Amino acid sequence: QVQLVESGGRLVQPGGSLRLSCAASGFPFSMYFMNWVRQAPGKGPEWVSGINSGGGTTRYASSVKARFTISRDNAKNTLFLQMNNLKPEDTALYYCARGGSASSGTLYSGDTYRGQGTQVTVSS
To answer: How far apart are CA 56 and CA 9, in angstroms?
Structure first.
């Protein structure tokens, strides 16, 4: 079955950096779009970033553009999110979500397949 396990979240000061990881198993990772989504306390999910199956095409929400970088290592079935210049408003539970297959062309269509998430807290 599809398994997605995130790691790397912690408490960090404003302006700091973190690198999140998502280990995938149970499906052909290299054949799917992948995404990062976050949910802040009391708010709905917010799509953050997505990447195509080969890793050559990325997309970002305007709120994180130029600060976050998504990447993937298909040999290790792992998705990453490098987060720089973190702000208090980035505080949220971050989780990875599988997108559509490469042949579908669908970057993100909801959280049917998602991990449990890793908590990122930005505070001084």
So the answer is: 25
What tens digit of pLDDT does each residue of 3-32 get? 999 999 999 999 999 999 999 999 999 999
| Residue 104: pLDDT over 90 | no
Amino acid identity, residue 84? N
Give the separation between CA 122 and CA 124, rounded to whole angstroms.
7
Geometric angle at alpha carbon 58, from 61 and 66, rounded to 5°: 50
DSSP the chain: --EEEEE---EE-TT--EEEEEEEESS-GGGEEEEEEEE-TTS-EEEEEEE-TTSS-EEE-TTTTTTEEEEEETTTTEEEEEE-S--GGG-EEEEEEEEEETTTT-S---SSSB---EEEEE--
Rounded to 10 degrees, the C-alpha dihedral 23/24/26/28 comes to -140
Tell me the pLDDT tens digit for each residue of 51-85.
999 999 999 999 999 999 999 999 999 999 999 99
Cross-strand bridge partners of residue 114: 97
